[in-house]
Amino acid sequence: MGKTHSSHPEHELELKNYRKPYTCDGCKEHGFGKRYRCEECDYDLHEDCMFNKSTTTHKFFKESTFKFKFYDKPPRKCDKINCNECKTYCDACGKHIKGFVYHCDEKGWDLHPCCHNLKNEFKIDGVKFQLGETVSKCTWCNQKKINDSLSRIKGWSYVSKCGTYHFHVYCVMEMVIEAWRNGMANSNDCLALENLELPIQRQLNRNGGRGNKYWRIAKVFLKTIVSILLGDPTITLGSLLVDLIIG
Ligand SMILES: [Zn+2]
Ligand SMILES: [Zn+2]
Ligand SMILES: [Zn+2]
Ligand SMILES: [Zn+2]
Ligand SMILES: [Zn+2]
């Protein structure tokens, strides 16, 4: 049995699990794996977009009593159409928000529904990763500021307790998109995410000498974040385990 969503009331959306990328018709961001879909209209929603909460909070914000409200598009700040000044950016990934959004009226914070799912803390193979404001250079882009000239947002980063790993949430997603592009160029099929060699692997290999453990933890961490951003935290769990055992 399917369900409808207020953004697509005409038909019921059914849970599908295709191992290929799609664009969510709610938040307009990339997705992979599980999605709620109307076959007739080619309409897809992330699970997080399908079952959006009407209000929510996020632990990242110390004052987590501030509520985020769900909107099907970012609330207008002025009357000008397509006003560049008023473009809405996600505080987590720093990207322009084009559809579904959690918005905090009091503070003006904005989050993509999938970014809202990013946890404050992860532990991978004994290494603790903490979500925070970007304060030092990212391992991937080697910059503090995220590589998106339009936004003034600093974006969130994950930093390991040991200080070895530091990744912008923005860069994690960019890596996947780059990997997809490379994958698409080499093949007509949509490659499954888990088969892709993330570009960070080349980067880390170049840095050299830091050993397999470094790379293994980075890879598991990146895949964990990617699967959340793509709206299906379960999708790579199987392959994550395989990676840990074989990889
Ligand atoms: Zn979505
Ligand atoms: Zn439909
Ligand atoms: Zn404006
Ligand atoms: Zn975001
Ligand atoms: Zn970065």
By helix and strand content, what is the structural category? alpha+beta
Give the strand order, joined by hyphens, for the main sheet: 1-2-3-4
The termini sit apart by 39 Å
Q: In percent terms, what proportion of residues is strand?
A: 15-25%
Number of strands: 12
Q: Describe the largest sheet.
A: 4 strands, antiparallel
The number of domains: 2
**What general form does the structure show?**
globular
Q: Mind telling me the C-alpha Rg?
A: 18 Å
Unreliable parts: 188-192, 237-247
Q: SSE string, helix = H, strand = E?
A: EEEEHEEEEEEEEHHHH
| Distinct helical segment count | 5
List bound small molecules.
Answer: zinc ion
Report helical residue fraction: 10-25%
Nearest-integer average pLDDT: 81
Describe, in plain words, how this protein is organized in 3D.
The protein is an alpha+beta fold and 247 residues long. The protein has two domains: 48 residues, Wheat Germ Agglutinin (Isolectin 2), domain 1 (2-Layer Sandwich), CATH 3.30.60; 128 residues, no CATH class. It is 24% helix and 25% strand. It has five helices and twelve strands. The strands form three sheets. The chain has a four-stranded antiparallel beta sheet with strand order 1-2-3-4. Strands 5-6-7-8 form a four-stranded antiparallel beta sheet, with no helix packed on it. A four-stranded antiparallel beta sheet has the order 9-10-11-12. The longest helix has 19 residues. The C terminus is likely disordered. It binds zinc ion (5 copies).
